[in-house]
Amino acid sequence: MATLSPMSARPRPFRLEARAIDWRLVALLLAYPFAFKLAHMAASPWGGAHFFSLWYPAAGVRLALLWRIGARYTPVLIVEECVIQLLTGTIVSDGPEFLNQLGGVARAPAAYGLMIALVRFIERRSRSELAIAPMPFGLAAVLAPTLVSFTAGFWEWLWPGVSGTLPSQPIATTIAAFLVGDLLGVLLVAPPLLWIGTRREEARRLMQIGRGRAVEAAAVFVFAWLLAWGLARVEPQIAVTPVLIGAIWVGLRCGRLGAWIAIILSAAIILPWSAPLSASATRFALHMGLAAMAIATYLAGSFAEAQIRAREDIARRDRILFQAERLKTLRAMSVAIIHEISQPLSTLAIETRHLSALSRDPQPDPAEMRESIELVDRKAALLADMVRRLRSFGGRAVDEPSPIIVGQMLRDCAGMVGGEARSLGCAISLPPMDARLQVTGHEIELTQILLNLLRNAMLAAPGSTIEIALESRADQVTIHVANPVPSPSPDYGGMGIGLLVARAIADAHGGTLSRDIAQGRARASLSLPRTEPSHD
């Protein structure tokens, strides 16, 4: 029989680990059944045969809460909705349709929770545009009502109720009515509920609508409603069509907030108009048009914001990529730079010892001391200049766009790779340059392009002369970096990630970067817009 060691036989102390209670979550769950019932009752004026309402705000309350707290609380919401409907008499516990009614209440939050869980799963796993916020919520706002409406339609088709007294309606009508009611409830109510308590950064992004865009969108929306008013006097069923187009434009230009404002303004016009209508077909058509407009508008606003976020992410990744490529170039230059620094340091050490010896001489030679001091000053300035170049090139910050003298930038680049060029046996040939020739841009990024081109040329042709040529036109400056290649010349098909980074930087500056091989020479050409020098 196995025996326990004294250590293993020692009883473990019992600890009760108390978790902090999320009182905000508790308050939301306690308030939910009352908010749900009030929203449920507010929808009664738009009721009809075999469907509760063509505008169902309770669905928006449900979706907002499940999206905020998570689909795992779906069973809690199912219990709460069933209890509140029992307590208020919507479900009769001793009636013949009790089980059917109880299932009808439970299936809606169950379908919402299932769809929210699925959308959240897609958001975590997918890399497509649909996973970029705020598109996931837009998908859930459309797909959850769709799932619950089809579930309700087929539920009534398979199990219409034990009493058989429910009016006979086509299943398509039931599904469409349920879908319209839930969609309008979700898209009108859920967004503002979720915007309450949003983070400052999210609120700032939501409110970031330019004045020009807002005026343009408002003008288009008002014009669309004027067309709708004219159509409503002839054919009310198609009156919402121009509003659909105008509201989509608002969503694309102003994001989710603009989309929701367009939706709520349209609902404020259509819902009071449709409530007293006796013709169910007309009211149904108006609500279907409003639902279609709400879906398209909110998804358009969500897509517009998702595109902005995607562009911001791409720009941020480009900056990281630029910095990584810059550090890669800096690392490759480090050995040569160390060699460049060691020579001035040796000279400084020698000259300082010489000055020390002169200072001990009773009658020092002033000319000799002045010559040594000037040499020390030149070498110290050279070291300071090298350190400045390295700090600016390897630093994380990106400089602001400014006028750049092309000749000075080329001389700086040639100086930075001078040590590496000597170690590879290369010589860099600089052309005569006009001091007035300049471009506007980020000096660090343009320096990065030129360093990449020079290093690629030296690595491709060690022991040769790398020629830099400068070509200027009225509105453009082109820098050529050429090196010899073996004959026949192989086409390397680019320069890897360095070429991609260089081309991205050139594009961002309104220029181009090209590469060609002809007559035994490879040439990379960087073209940039020319800037006229200031005469201040």
UniProtKB/TrEMBL annotation:
A GO term, aspect molecular function: phosphorelay sensor kinase activity
Keyword Phosphoprotein set for record: yes
Chain ranges passing through the membrane: 134-155, 175-194, 214-231, 237-252, 257-275, 281-301
Pfam families hit by this protein: HATPase_c
ATP-binding recorded as keyword: no
Gene3D superfamilies: 1.10.287.130, Histidine kinase-like ATPase, C-terminal domain (3.30.565.10)
Name of this protein: Histidine kinase domain-containing protein
Keyword annotations: Membrane, Phosphoprotein, Transmembrane, Transmembrane helix
Organism: Sphingobium yanoikuyae ATCC 51230
Domain Histidine kinase: 336-532
Superkingdom, natural source: Bacteria
